[in-house]
Design a protein that fits this description.
six-stranded mixed beta sheet, globular, alpha+beta
Length: 629
C-alpha cells in the first residue's frame, strides 16, 4: 500500500488534506487536535526536551486555536516552558507520515497552461484583467492531449509544432465567456495537484482568476479550488507590488522560479525569458512572428500561427520537465523535509520540519518557536584574500567540499551541544602560529572560541552525517544504473533504467540542496535553532579552515623549493585556494614554457599524490588543535 500527500493546509479548526492512496486521489477535511509537551516535575515523562534534558508529557488540545492560545498565554512566564511545534501542518504531516515519504510522480496531476490576451488597444491591466483572453493552451500530465481553446479557426493538421496532431484537441468558441466556462470545466474535471508555466504565478493565474471573477462571478472562480477557497496575495518585486491568488488544495509552482532555484547545471543566465532558456536547455525557440510585427497583427492576419504560438509555450514546459525533471526534484526536496511543495524553495521552514521529524521519532522535543533570535552585529562572512596582481601561467584551485556542513559535523555544532557558559580565548592567528591547543577532551572549540560538547553527537551533525552517507550510497546506485543503461538493448528495460536514474539523481540532488541550504537557515534569526554564537562559529571556522589550507600548502612548497616565507597562494575565496605552481614547474622543467599537456599531467600527479595529502594532514592537525568531535 502506498500513500502520500500533495497538499496539507490549515483552515480554521480543520486540516485540508489531499493526496493519493494506491494511485487513487483522496480529499479529507480533518478536525486536527494538536499536541504540545509540558514538563511536570512530579510526573515522569516519556519524552525529553532537546536542551536541558527535561522529562516531558504530551498534552493534546481540542483544536489548533486552543493550542495557539495556550502558547500565547504562557509566553514569557518564568519556569513554564512549552515544547513541541506551533506549525501544526508540520505536526500533522509528521503524525500521518512519520517515516520516509515514498511518492509516485506518475500519480500527481501536473498541469501547465498559458493564456494569450488581446492587446490591440494597449497592454492589459493585470490586476483588473480588463482585456479579453483570446486563447488558452492546457496540458495535464495525466493525458497525452494538448487542449487548445480559442476564438478563431485552427487546423491541427497544419501545426508547425513537434506534436502529433492526434494529440491536439482544439475547441473554438463564439464568446470569451464560453471559452472561460470550458476552461473551468476542464480544470475541475480533474483538479491539478501542481500548476506550472513560465511566469504563470504572477501573470496567468492572477489574470485568469480575476477575469473569471469579472465575467463569471466569484463563486465560479472559487471552483478552481477543490476546497472552493481563493486568497489574494501580494509581493513587492523591484519596488512594484504584484498580486496573485493562492488556490487552496493545489500548488502553483512557477517553472521560471524552479529553473532559477534548482537549475544548477545551467549556471547563471543573462536572461530568464522563456525564449532564451528554451534555447539553452532544449535548443528550441518560441515561434517567430516578427514578420507580423506585433501579436495583435499576428492574431488578426494569421490566427493559425497565433494559436501555435500559444500552444508551443505549454509544449516547452513539458519538454523542460522531460529533459530536466526539475519539478520532480522539487517534490523530492519537499517530501524529504515533510513539507508542502512550495516550501521546498525556502530554508528555515524545511529545516525546522526536518529536525522536528527526526527529534519526535526519538521522543525528543524542541521548544516552541517564539520571537526571532538576537543578532549582536552583522555576521562574519567567508574569508576572501585579495588577489595578488600578476601573470601566473600555472595556477591550480583546491575547493573544500560542502565546507559549512562539514564544519558543523567536525565541531559537533547543534543547539543541544552548545555550551554557552564555556568560552576559550583563541584567535585564528594563534592557531595558525601554533600558539593554541585545546586541552579539553569533552568539548570542541570553534575559531571564535565558542565551545560545543563532545559527549554525544548533536541532532544537526547527526542529520548531516546521515545525509552524506545516504548520498554516497545513492550516487553509487546511480552509477551502476548508468553503466547498465549504456549496455542495455531492451527498449522497455532502457526506459525503466532511465526513470530509475532520474529518480536517483533527484534523490542525491535533494540531499545536496538540503545541506547547501543548512547554513542559510542557521544564520537566519527566524530559525528556531538560531544561535548567534553558533552562526559565527561556522563562518569563522570556515575562515580558519581555508587559511589553514593556505598555511599547509605554503609550508610544503617553501620546503620543496627551499624558500623562506614565500606565499604561493595568489587568491582565496571562502572555500577555495588558488595556488601558483609556476615556481615548481620551473624548478622541475627549467622553464615555465612547457606544453599544456605536459604541465597538466605533471600538476595532476603532484596535486593528487602530494598536495591533497598535505592539505589533509594539515586538517588532521587543525582538528587535533581544536579538539574536534
Amino acid at each position: 500500500m502506498s500513500e502520500f500527500y500533495t497538499s496539507v493546509e490549515r483552515y480554521g479548526k480543520n486540516i485540508l488534506w489531499r493526496g493519493y492512496k494506491d494511485g487513487k486521489r483522496f480529499s479529507y477535511r480533518v478536525p486536527f487536535q494538536p499536541t504540545l509537551y509540558l514538563h511536570t516535575p512530579k510526573k515522569e515523562g516519556e519524552y525529553t526536551s532537546l536542551v536541558g534534558g527535561k522529562k516531558l508529557n504530551p498534552h493534546k488540545f481540542g483544536e489548533m486555536r486552543e493550542a495557539k492560545d495556550f502558547i500565547e498565554e504562557y509566553k514569557g512566564v518564568s519556569n513554564f516552558e512549552v515544547f513541541g511545534t506551533n506549525n501544526f501542518i508540520t505536526q500533522f504531516i509528521q503524525e500521518h507520515y512519520p517515516g520516509e515519504i515514498q511518492f509516485n510522480v506518475d500519480d500527481i496531476n501536473i498541469v501547465s497552461f498559458d493564456i494569450e490576451v488581446d492587446i490591440s488597444n494597449g497592454y492589459a491591466n493585470i490586476d483588473e484583467a480588463d482585456k479579453e483572453i483570446t486563447s488558452i493552451a492546457y496540458k495535464s500530465s495525466k493525458s497525452n492531449k494538448y487542449v487548445l481553446l480559442g476564438r478563431k479557426d485552427y487546423d491541427k493538421t497544419k501545426t508547425l509544432l513537434k506534436i502529433d496532431p492526434d494529440d491536439i484537441e482544439f475547441i473554438k468558441f463564439d464568446t470569451e465567456v464560453q471559452l472561460l466556462q470550458a476552461f473551468v470545466k476542464l480544470w475541475t474535471h480533474n483538479y491539478p495537484d501542481i500548476v506550472t508555466g513560465w511566469n504563470v504565478e504572477y501573470f496567468d493565474i492572477q489574470y485568469i482568476v480575476t477575469r473569471i471573477m469579472r465575467l463569471l462571478g466569484e463563486e465560479t472562480a472559487k471552483r478552481l479550488s477543490p476546497w472552493k477557497s481563493l486568497n489574494r496575495i501580494t509581493r513587492e518585486f523591484f519596488g512594484k507590488v504584484q498580486s496573485t491568488y493562492k488556490i487552496s488544495g493545489l500548488s502553483i509552482i512557477d517553472y521560471m522560479d524552479v529553473f532559477k532555484k534548482f537549475g544548477y547545471k545551467y549556471g547563471p543566465q543573462e536572461s530568464y525569458k522563456l525564449d532564451h532558456i528554451a534555447y539553452v536547455v532544449l535548443g528550441e525557440k518560441k515561434l517567430d512572428y516578427s514578420e507580423y510585427g506585433t501579436l495583435t497583427e499576428l492574431y488578426e492576419k494569421n490566427p493559425q500561427l497565433y494559436l501555435d504560438y500559444n500552444l508551443k509555450d505549454t509544449w516547452l514546459i513539458k519538454r523542460f520537465e522531460d529533459e530536466t525533471s526539475l519539478l520532480a526534484l522539487v517534490m523530492t526536496v519537499a517530501y524529504g523535509g515533510g513539507v508542502n511543495y512550495t516550501d521546498a524553495f525556502g530554508t528555515v521552514g524545511i529545516w525546522e520540519s526536518t529536525i522536528y521529524r527526526r527529534l519526535i521519532k526519538d521522543k525528543i522535543v524542541p521548544p516552541v518557536k517564539s520571537s526571532p533570535g538576537a543578532r549582536a552585529d552583522e555576521l562574519v562572512g567567508g574569508y576572501v584574500k585579495d588577489p595578488r596582481p600578476g601573470m601566473y601561467p600555472w595556477v591550480v584551485s583546491f575547493d573544500l567540499n560542502s565546507l559549512y556542513p562539514h564544519l558543523m559535523l567536525q565541531y559537533n555544532m547543534s543547539p543541544e551541544t552548545y555550551l554557552p557558559d564555556e568560552r576559550e580565548f583563541v584567535t585564528q592567528d594563534m592557531v595558525l602560529t601554533d600558539q593554541y591547543q585545546n586541552t579539553s577532551n569533552s568539548m570542541s572549540v570553534a575559531a571564535n572560541g565558542v565551545c560545543f560538547s563532545n559527549e554525544k553527537l548533536g541532532i544537526i551533525p547527526e542529520i548531516i552525517d546521515e545525509y552524506y552517507g545516504n548520498r554516497s550510497k545513492i550516487k553509487k546506485q546511480m552509477l551502476a544504473a548508468e553503466q547498465q543503461y549504456e549496455i542495455e538493448k531492451d527498449p522497455t528495460e532502457k526506459d525503466r533504467l532511465k526513470r530509475e536514474i532520474n529518480q536517483l539523481h533527484n534523490s542525491q540532488m535533494s540531499i545536496k540542496i538540503a545541506m547547501n541550504s543548512l547554513y542559510g537557515a542557521t544564520a537566519n534569526i527566524y530559525f528556531l535553532y538560531y544561535i548567534n554564537d553558533m552562526a559565527e562559529a561556522i563562518t569563522t571556522s570556515g575562515q580558519l579552515s581555508i587559511r589553514y589550507a593556505q598555511k599547509s600548502v605554503n609550508d610544503y612548497l617553501n620546503k620543496v623549493l627551499k624558500t623562506d616565507g614565500k606565499d604561493y597562494v595568489v587568491y582565496i575565496d571562502t572555500d577555495s585556494i588558488y595556488v601558483n605552481f609556476g615556481p615548481l614547474i620551473k624548478e622541475v622543467f627549467g622553464t615555465t614554457d612547457i606544453s599544456r599537456k605536459e604541465g597538466e599531467e605533471f600538476l595532476d600527479k603532484i596535486c593528487s599524490t602530494k598536495i591533497e595529502q598535505v592539505i589533509e594532514k594539515g586538517y588532521e592537525k587543525l582538528a587535533s588543535k581544536m579538539g574536534a568531535y
